[in-house]
From TrEMBL:
Protein name (record): 6-carboxy-5,6,7,8-tetrahydropterin synthase
Domain of life per record: Bacteria
Cofactor(s), by name: Zn(2+)
Pfam short name (any one): PTPS
Cofactor binding note: Binds 1 zinc ion per subunit.
Lineage of producing organism: Bacteria, Pseudomonadati, Dictyoglomota, Dictyoglomia, Dictyoglomales
Catalytic center residues: 22, 66, 107
Single biological process term from Gene Ontology: tRNA queuosine(34) biosynthetic process
Pathway entry: Purine metabolism; 7-cyano-7-deazaguanine biosynthesis
Annotated positions binding Zn(2+): 13, 26, 28
EC number: 4.-.-.-
């Protein structure tokens, strides 16, 4: 079973290792989806929605909202933002009955990434 919580934050960034218009400073209203997988506990919950909201707000939203993300994450692509968020949340959401399953980071309504904690090896071309 999965618990899903959606969030929004506004932030600016630029992609320094990119050739194109996104190398210039610009902003997004990001949408973040956090999915926790687990088994309901004795209270019938995988994780309390309020607790999940508080953790994500403290560990992610309060840091990234209205920020210049380049000061926090090197080359802040949606992919790198998703990895950074995963690293901030994975241990905080690990319980006997549940764990972080998936992070979705949406830069626009129709462009986003999904990350499930896989080890990523960068390719150089």
């Amino acid at each position: 079973m999965f618990v899903i919580r959606k969030f929004k934050f506004d932030a600016a960034h630029n992609l320094e290792s990119y050739k194109g218009k996104c190398e210039r400073l610009h902003g997004h209203t990001y949408r973040l989806v956090v999915i926790v997988e687990g088994i309901p506990d004795s209270e019938g919950m995988i994780i309390d929605f309020v607790e999940l909201k508080d953790i994500v707000k403290r560990e992610v939203i309060d840091i990234l909202d209205h920020s210049y993300i380049n000061e926090i994450i090197k080359q802040p692509t949606a992919e790198n933002i998703a990895i950074w968020i995963w690293q901030r949340l994975e241990e905080k959401l690990k319980r006997g009955n549940c764990h972080l399953y998936e992070i979705q980071v949406w830069e626009t309504e129709d462009s986003g990434v999904i990350y499930r904690g896989e080890k990523i090896e960068r390719r150089s071309e």
